[in-house]
Structure formats: C-alpha cells, structure tokens
Amino acid sequence: MERENAWKRYTKEDLEKLERINLGYREFLDTGKTERECVAKTIKLANEAGYQNLADLIKRGESLKAGDKVYLAYMGKSIVLFHIGTNPIEQGMNILGAHIDSPRIDIKQNPLYEDTELVYLDTHYYGGIKKYQWVTIPLAIHGVVVKKDGTVLNIVIGEEENDPVVFISDLLIHLAQTQLEKKGAKVVEGEDLNVIIGNIPLKEEEKDAVKKNIIRLMKEKYNFEEEDFISAELEVVPAGKAREAGIDRSMIMAYGQDDRSCAYTSLIAMLNKKEVETTACVLLVDKEEIGSVGATGMQSKFFENTLAELLDRMGIYSELTLRRVLANSKMLSSDVSAAFDPTYASVFEKKNAAYFSKGIVINKFTGSRGKSGSNDANAEYIGEIRRIFDEYHVAYQTAELGKVDQGGGGTIAYIMALYGMNVIDSGVAVLNMHAPYEVVSKADLYEAVKAYEAFLSE
Question: What's the CA gap between 328 and 420, in Å, rounded?
C-alpha cells in the first residue's frame, strides 16, 4: 500500500496555506520552549479567537450553551479548550490530545557551584535523551523563579541576539581515547551534564570569587538570590529559533517538535472551527515524557474535573452524565511518529514505517515488544477514521515504531482509553526524535491540520 508524496498534489492555494501554517508554527516553537510558555501562547491565541476563561465564568456564575468556546489552564502547565456543539454533549466529544513537554535538562534545587574558577549549574535531565547530543551546543535557560512572598519571575536567558548563551563542555578529541571506548549511553554521564555559566571573579574576594560574582549578577539583573533556586523551575534547552531546513525549504528544524508539532496543529484546527455539531475539545498536557505523572500529567484528574465544571455551567452535571460523555467520546491522541531514516534502515520495517511528506501517521498501537503499555485501537474505529480522512482528502499513512523487538514508546492514548472511549494515535512523522534539534516535513504539518479539522467536523 504505497502512499504518494503529498507535495505532488498541491495546488498554488495549498502551498500558500501550507506556508502560512508553517510560519505560525515556527513562531509557536520560538515562543514556546517550555510547557508554561506553550500554555501562555495557547491562551493568547484562544483569547484572540473568542474563547473565554472557564474559571472566570465559574466565578461569575455564568451559564454555557451551544456555540460557546472556553478554556481552562491548570497550574500554568496544561490546558483544555472546549467548543460546545449543537448535539447533546452526552453523545460524546471529539477530542484532540497532545503533550507540550519535551526532553530537556532541568536545573537542580541546589545547583550553583564553583570549580577551578568556572561556575556551574548542576542538572538533572528530563525525559529520554542521548546525553552526548547535549554537549558543546549553545543552550538557553527558560523558566520561573518563585520567591517566598509569591512573586513569580519569568526567566529567559540566551534567546535574544545579544543575550549570552550557556553550554556543557565535552572532552577534546586529543584526550578522548578512553571516553570513546565507552558505550554511547556512558560517553557522557548524567551527573556530568553540568552547565557552565561564568568565569569572572569578584576582585575583592578570595574564595568562590566567581560564584559570588554570578550571585551578584543574578541579584542585579534578575532579582533573585541563590536560595531562590529552591523554588525555581528552570529548564535548559537549545538556544535559537526554528529554521527552515533543506535547500528547497521543505522541512522545519527546531527543538521540541515532539510533541509541539501535534499540539500546534491540534490547536489551530480547533481555533479554525467556526461552529461544530459535536462538542470539540483540545487537551494539551504536561509530563508525558516521564510517564504522564503528577498533577499536570494525563494521569491526573484535572481533565475529568474540568469537564465536570463545564457540565455544571451547562446545567446538566451529574456523575452519570460525566461518565457518559467520557465513554461516548472519540479521540485522536495527537503524538508524533518516528520517520523512516534510510541511514538507519535496519531498525525499521519498511512496509510499516512512517515517511516524510506522506501525510499524517496513524498508529494502531504504540508500546514496546508485545504491545506492552499500548492502547490497541479497534478496527471499527480505524475504519471510521479512514472514512473521515478520505472524505476530506487528507493524506495519511499507517506505521509502527520500528521493528517489533527494537524498542518502542508510549503516548497518552492508553490513559484516555481507560474511560472507555475510542482512541488512536495520529500525528506527525519526526526525524531526530528526542534530539536537541528535530526535523519535520512542512507537508506533514499541513496534512495534520487538515486531518484534525476533518475529525472535529464529524
């Protein structure tokens, strides 16, 4: 079942739409390198599209009806958007769910130290990374520092043209004979991912003079003390903007495209809908890269609680109604797939791999080995998705994540399936997944928006 390269079928109008989507996507990536930044950007776009904050409506005791559009952010790291349809919500919703966290390096709570007049920040990596990929590249620091009085300081260092960047050093090739004999997982150890941030000492100090100078600069420029690291969430990410890739400008190369490529396309599909019959929902969540845990991960009750609040504002809340809505809903778990890479063809099964520019990818299951940890979508639901995509002229393909015993991965699909709803993974193919710079096809981004709009139209 060969799939055609989507570029071959595009009209001039398609190409113009494609470029507009990808331009907005690059801007989303540039302003959303953390989950908090993604939520802030989502709120801005939602407000511009006429959505209201559900929390404000609850405070004012206002009711909701068909046609209303609302959102609710949770702890600044996850967000849910609803567009209420004309059909009874008990019949279920059409849900697009993606995650907005990405693999990165987190700064520890007691991170600052000096060694031989170099000052470092101690770190703990987040999610699955190849640690050796993160050394010697320019890095930026994003996040928040919360002071004891509750003041929140938003920190971004390394993104403006005149900003300094930070970095992690590596051993020079001339002295690396022993290092290069190690396995890839051990070439750079997790405890060695320490970020270098300074080298100038305070002249009047003898001990830890460089560290004291850094502390002085932090106080003067950013208004926080060393102790404030305890209540900070600071993330180290690759510095710089998303770029067009390829001489033909056919691709996007940037940090964090797993899973912001699916988050953005899901969001834009939702915001593009002027009216819906079935209530539409977009769910953008945190912590997927570490198992969907915590208060802002998909295993939390925040989505269920938010839906209960929505039903209450609609005047129809009951526990039974809530359960019926969830069980009758249908979902595309908008998460990325591994794009086939001819350089590493041995780990893929070519008939069941995802390819660049052949459209959005349907994954019947994820998990590993014997489908462990997966949601295995049923055939009836896949048949329905095929019908929708064909009716709306969406380019799509099917895939698995590599050969059967080579590895695997997970999404939020299996968690949402616990409600009894139909769920299938459907997203964008990515090269260099989990590397500091990932690559997607512009055509696949365009087809994802078309696919998600089609799904929300049903």
Answer: 8
- CA–CA gap between residue 375 and residue 412 (Å, rounded): 9
Point out which residues pair with 244 in neighbouring strands.
252
Residues 6 or more apart from 57 whose CB is under 8 A from it?
Answer: 64, 70, 313
Angle at alpha carbon of residue 154, lines to 151 and 157, rounded to 5°: 145
Distance, CA of 388 to CA of 310 (rounded, Å) = 28
Q: Is 140 helix (H, G, I), strand (E, B) or coil?
A: strand
214 residue type, one letter: I
Tell how strand 422-427 and strand 330-333 pair up.
parallel
Q: Which two tokens stand for residue 292?
A: 């969907």
Q: For residue 234, what are the CA distances in angstroms to 105, 106, 228, 272, 318?
A: 9, 6, 11, 33, 41
Q: Indicate the helix (H) or strand (E) that contains 83.
A: strand 78-83
Question: Domain spanning 6-102+255-457 has what CATH number?
Answer: 3.40.630.10
Cis peptide before 30 (omega within 30 of 0): no
Which token pair is 163? 């900003």
Domain edges within the chain: 6-102+255-457, 104-238
Produce one character per residue of 394-432: b if its CB has 16 or more CB atoms within 10 Å, e if not.
bbbbbbbbbeeeeebbbbbbbbbbebebbbbbbbbbbbb
* Euclidean distance between CA atoms 322 and 415, whole angstroms: 17
- Asked if residues 453 and 269 have their Cβ atoms less than 8 Å apart, the reply is yes
Query: pLDDT tens digits for 86-121?
Result: 999 999 999 999 999 999 999 999 999 999 999 999
d(CA 9, CA 18): 13
- Look at the domain 104-238 and name its fold: Aminopeptidase i, Domain 2 (2.30.250)
> At 312, which helix (H) or strand (E)?
helix 302-313
Cβ atoms within 10 A of the Cβ of 128, count? 11
**Terminal CA-CA length for the chain:** 26
**Using one digit for the tens of pLDDT, what is the confidence trace for 385-402?**
999 999 999 999 999 888
Confidence of residue 210 (pLDDT cuts 50, 70, 90): very high
Pairwise CA distance, residues 54 & 52, whole Å: 6
Q: Which residue has the tokens 């988050």?
A: 263
